[in-house]
Amino acid sequence: MLAKDKYINPLTDFGFKKLFGTEPNKDLLIDFLNQLLPKNKRVKKLKYTQNEHLGNGSLDRKAIFDLYCENEKGEKFIVEMQKAKQNYFKDRSVYYSSFPIREQAKRGEWNYQLSDIFTIGVLDFIFDDSQSKNFISTVKLKDQDCKVFYEKLTFIYLELPKFKKEESQLKSKFDKWIFVLKHLANLQDRPAFLKEKVFKKLFESAEIA
Fold it and tell me: Residue 11 and residue 82: Cα distance in Å, rounded?
C-alpha cells in the first residue's frame, strides 16, 4: 500500500504561500531570504504588503505577486514560485519589478531616490537558454564593461532541477533549504541533518493533519 503524503508540497501555490506567506511563518521567509542575499542586505524585520497591483489605467493588466514584502529599510522583495514552465518568465519578472519602482514615486517635489528591489524566482524548471550548470543566477544591470551600472535592482533565479546534491553533499544551510524545497513533499520524516530550529518549524508547519 502506498504511503500517504505527510507534508504539503512547497512548490505548489497553496504550499508555498502557506509556508512562507503567513504571519506565523514570517521567520521562515526571513531565514530563506537571508540565505540568498549578501551579508549587507540581510533582513531583520519584514512585513507583507499588498500583493495585487493595478496598472495606470483601468484597461492595463494588473500584477498579482505570490509574495510581496518590505524590510525595515524600505527595501522591496517580490518572491515568485513557478512550478510549470513559462516561456517568458524573465519578461514577467522584469515587468513585476516595475511596480515597486513606480509605487515609490512621491507627489510634489521628489529627488527620485529609490529603495532596493529584489525579484526572486523559485523555479521548478530550467530556462531554455540556460548555459550555466549553477542552479542560482543573480542578475544586475551592467554596462558594456560588465560593471554593475545600477546596484538597487536585483533578480535572483533558482532553477531547482539543476540542484543535484545528495544528503551527504549538503555543506551549507542554503544547500539544506534548496534540498527541502525539492524533496519535502516526498519525505515521511524530518531528516536528522536538518537539525536547525527553522527546519523543525518548517516541517511542523508543512505537516498535513
Answer: 7
